[in-house]
Amino acid sequence: MTGRAPEPVTAAANPPVEPLEANLGARDVVRASAMPNLPAPDRSLTEVAKLIDVSKCIGCKACQSACAEWNETHPEIGVNTGVYENPPDLSAEMFTLMRFTEYDNPDTGNFEWLIRKDGCMHCAEPGCLAACPAPGAIVKYSNGIVDFIHENCIGCGYCIIGCPFDVPRISPRDNRSYKCTLCSDRVAMGQGPACAKSCPTQAIVFGTKAAMIEHANDRIADLKSRGYANAGVYDPPGVGGTHVIYVLHHADQPSLYAGLPDDPQVAATVSAWKGANKTIGLAAMGLAAAGAVLHGLFGRANRVSAEDEVEAQALVDREREGDA
Amino acid sequence: MRRRHFSDRGDRILDRNPVRVGRYRLFTRINHWIIAASTILLLLSGLAFYWPSLFWLTALFGGGQAARWLHPILGLVLAVGYLLMFVQLVARNIPRHDDVVWVRHIRDIVDQNEDKLPTLGKYNAGQKFVFWAMAGLILLLLGTGVMIWHQAFPDLVPVPARRWAVLGHSVAAALMAMTFVLHVYAGIWTRGTLSAMTRGWVTGGWAWRHHRKWLKEVAGRRD
Ligand code: HEM
Ligand code: SF4
Ligand code: SF4
Ligand code: SF4
After folding, report:
1. Which domains are seen in chain A, by residue range?
2. B25 lines ligand 1 (CB under 6 A)
3. What are A43-53's pLDDT values in tens digits?
């Protein structure tokens, strides 16, 4: 008899040694792509979050290495292009990426090196999930984690179209979409994410969303006391909040950090495409087909009459003889 | 050779008793059925991505991955086939004054008061509408389809452009489905039409009733 793994509240804990039952799975799914009438799960997990404190990050990329190691991904060995980003972009083999921005602060005259850990934000309203056409290829669990279920993925790339943060990547190897899982497999076993666990400065921490907001507020108070008047948390309401949140020293200008969206939302084009367009389109196609069938069954067919044949015969004879 | 206004080079009186008129040569007919088949398969695979409860249609293609892979390739087949068809048929599909008069008599068309309608060349305004609507929609579907064809062109256009493309593709596909229904329906409601695309000919009576100027010109030709 094995117990069920606890819900993790930190990334610092060591793994259990006794065999445990996974505590996150299909029965915790609150939303799934292309499955509009999903029954509500019979239990609700506590919302979790990963907090990335940009002001503490030293850009060492331990998290990137830990992520590749844990997920057994193999990013291609690249070349030095004169910037610190390596690899140059997120990929199906690199779920998280440190992005470096050099910023000349006009207010202080200081040169600032802004380093942001990019990756999936685990949106409460995930655009990827809204766009995906394959049933169950993208799921959201009651603890807030958004996960890609690769067996169900068809490789269409709609998740890329739907995501406001440009995160998912399709693997050219197996034509399936990949992104940060928030280490859902570790969370299921009571462990925090690998990236958080590896972070030497504790810039990445993990716990319940409430605890992470509390921790963020402590950090913001500290930053403000040290002159960062605009320090704040990035938990964008446009996507219903996220389960990866940042502490930013310049929370008034998120886009300073390698183009982090100032006010991310599921694009209006995406909502129109998946919403009104489909309802109207399907209704119009249905009506056209039904109208044709009904008229076909009950309308009077347009038949060629015997007189038409006689007239045609006469016309052809006239034309032929006329020239002969 | 007299100038042709209403007929194509291959159109012929095949028999005089009873009259049979050749309308499409074998190449055109084969091409038409390739276009038809690819359109149906495109609609079935496309609708699977369009609406969650139709996703099961992917099973017809061997699963979601296969349907996703095949759909754009079928799109290319359709586009090439239609281009050939377009070149062959465009000359007789240019709108003329007769078409305006014919459309104004829409009630008489439905009520089958054939004697009140103007006599027509090889195509009526409805057929011309389908011809041009399909041409425009296929062009649009090809353009937008290539933009969202992730496997072949992963970085062709930036994400915001892809969003517009997929919306445009979706709208155009629904319009194409409706045009397709109109086309098939018209071909069945107007009895005697199907043989033009199956066996390649129509009866004299059919030609006299629906396309009299075409029949007259074909009958009068000596080339
Ligand atoms: C002409 C070339 C075409 C190309 C290159 C093309 C390409 C694509 C691509 C790449 C997709 C995304 C799914 C996938 O990767 O398979 C798609 C979706 C779709 N296609 Fe096409 N397609 C073409 C023509 C057509 C035609 C003729 C129709 C229907 C008459 C059609 C109907 C659809 C529909 C309904 C969708 C789903 C759209 C949605 O989810 O809103 N496509 N097409
Ligand atoms: S690529 Fe996969 S996960 Fe992304 S939208 Fe398509 S089916 Fe869904
Ligand atoms: S960041 Fe993008 S991929 Fe991640 S949950 Fe949000 S929409 Fe989906
Ligand atoms: S949470 Fe896990 S998958 Fe996501 S970036 Fe961290 S290590 Fe990678």
Report:
1. 26-274 (3.30.70.20), 287-323 (no CATH)
2. no
3. 999 999 999 99
Is this model's pTM higher than 0.90 or not?
Answer: yes
List, in order, residues 6 or more apart from A150 with CB less than 8 Å away: A137, A174, A176, A177, A178
Helix ranges (H only) for A174-305 are 184-187, 194-198, 209-225, 268-274, 276-298
Indicate the number of domains in chain B: 1
Is residue B1, in this structure, part of any structural domain at all? no
Q: What is the pLDDT of residues B145-179, one digit of tens each?
A: 999 999 999 999 999 999 999 999 999 999 999 99
- Assembly ipTM: 0.94
Q: Are A316 and B219 within 8 A, CB to CB?
A: yes
The residues of B carrying an active-site annotation are 183
Instruction: Say if the Cβ atoms of A312 and B148 lie within 8 Å.
Output: no
Nearest to A143 by CA among A31, A264, A13, A14: A31
Residue A156 in contact with ligand 1 by CB distance below 6 A: yes
Please indicate whether residue A160, judged by its CB atom, sits closer than 6 Å to ligand 1: no
Ligand 1: distance of its center to the CA of B177 in Å?
Answer: 12
Q: How far apart are CA B103 and CA A287, in angstroms?
A: 23
Show the tokens assigned to A319.
């034309």
Q: Provide the shortest C-alpha distance from residue B35 to chain A (in Å).
A: 20
